[in-house]
Specification:
four-stranded antiparallel β-sheet
């Protein structure tokens, strides 16, 4: 909307760069262009303000497919007024010279024209398309049909309107139908999820089986090695017993041989000792045999004296002493102690 100020009965208009202003005075075009700024009198001025920027028009309408299913279409049409003079001549873009506001609703008229034209071509396309195809390929086909229909509409260029772009946002069925259409896909997704779950469980079971087999194989291998260990221990024990028995046999034989040698040596020593003793005894007997009775008596007395207790003194009678001295070859006489 243009900015209008008052000064001493005059009005000053200042427009935006995207606004086309047309100023008529007494039926004559005085000002015509974009972003104008000028003074005028409100009683003699006829002003028109035509926006020339791109405008977005959102629209939503219902349509019916070839299988009698209701769908909602959401689209957006971008347009601009390319010929402001034509638009101002066909539509009421006049503004109040005192306030600068539109006297009519030109943009609503353009929106109605574009919406009804686009809806007409969209309905024509969807009426020949089943619901499944409309949901899959309907966006592109409806966009192409609406674009072509708006480009071929003669009222738009005659009104100075140019369609810049057409966008179809969505085509959606009713809520119940949409849920019904989602069911097969959901079931398939659930089946895929179940299949993945079963496969994962199967893989887990297979891995558990492999682990159990590995554990069993490990136990079998351990049992086999334990059996080998037991056999080896038995072999070692038997070998140790045999070695010990052999060592004991050798030690026994050695001890027996040593004892035999010792016994032989003892016997030999005993024989030699006996022989020596026999010779000594024989010599002793020969000496006794050769000695006289007196000598034997003297030896007997000597042996007896050796075995008797110690005698400090002895008293002999003269008769006994005489007899002894005579036997010893000493002269008789006297007595002694």
């Amino acid at each position: 909307m243009a900015d209008i100020t008052r000064r001493f009965g005059w009005r000053h208009l200042r427009s935006a760069p995207t606004t086309h202003i047309r100023h008529h005075k007494r039926g004559r075009l005085v000002h015509d262009g974009l972003g104008l700024s000028f003074w005028y009198r409100s009683l003699s001025a006829a002003l028109s303000e035509v926006p020339v920027d791109d405008r977005e028009l959102a629209m939503a309408f219902h349509a019916r497919t070839s299988d009698f299913q209701d769908v909602a279409v959401q689209a957006t049409v971008t347009y601009r007024i390319s010929d402001p003079a034509e638009a101002a001549a066909r539509l009421d873009f006049s503004v109040d010279p005192d306030t600068g506001s539109w006297r009519g609703a030109p943009l609503e008229q353009i929106a109605t024209l574009l919406t009804e034209t686009a809806q007409q071509h969209a309905l024509a396309v969807l009426a020949r398309t089943p619901l499944a195809s409309a949901l899959v390929d309907g966006v592109a086909s409806v966009r192409e049909s609406v674009t072509a229909g708006l480009a071929a509409e003669p009222r738009l260029p005659a009104t100075g309107i140019e369609v810049v772009a057409v966008r179809v946002v969505a085509i959606r069925p009713e809520a119940e139908v949409e849920r019904a259409l989602r069911t097969p896909a959901r079931e398939q997704i659930q089946q895929e999820a179940d299949r993945a779950t079963y496969e994962r469980r199967a893989v887990a079971v297979e891995r558990e089986r492999a682990i159990a087999e590995n554990e069993l194989a490990s136990q079998i291998e351990l049992a086999r090695r334990e059996e080998q260990l037991i056999d080896q221990r038995g072999t070692n024990a038997r070998r140790e017993a045999e070695e010990k028995a052999a060592a004991d046999g050798i030690r026994t034989e050695t001890e027996a041989a040593r004892k035999v040698r010792l016994a032989g040596a003892d016997a030999e020593a005993a024989r030699e000792t006996g022989a020596a003793r026999a010779e000594v005894q024989a010599a002793w007997l020969r000496v006794h045999d050769e000695a006289g009775p007196d000598t034997l008596h003297a030896l007997a007395v000597t042996r007896l004296a050796e075995n008797l207790p110690r005698i400090e003194s002895i008293t002999l009678s003269p008769d006994v002493l005489t007899g002894l001295l005579s036997k010893l070859g000493r002269p008789e006489g006297g007595s002694g102690e």
